[in-house]
Amino acid sequence: MTDRVMRYESCEPSMNSAVKKRSVVLHGHRTSVSLEDDFWVALNDIAAEKGVSVPSLIEHVDSEQEHVNLSSALRVFVFRHYSNAWQETRVRTDERNLATNDTQRQVS
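-> structure tokens emitted (108 positions)
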């Protein structure tokens, strides 16, 4: 796999996402990673969001993990990324709702 960003036709979640094995060079050594299509799409999206290549993102995740299977570490990374994003959105929504309620009370 090169440093180019992988492209996929569909970004829709699928309950039948097939496992795909991809080769990647980590710390100068070639290895393979098996993940469901949806996780490859998510890694592609996260890498684009962060302005890095997918291999660079995978190498970062690999350097942060402690004796865990890389595929598992990548799944957890994707889960945490979207979970944190959801939490941040929820907090911002709650803050907006509180501000709106305060404004409405002051007007009343």
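The beta strands are 19-26, 29-36.
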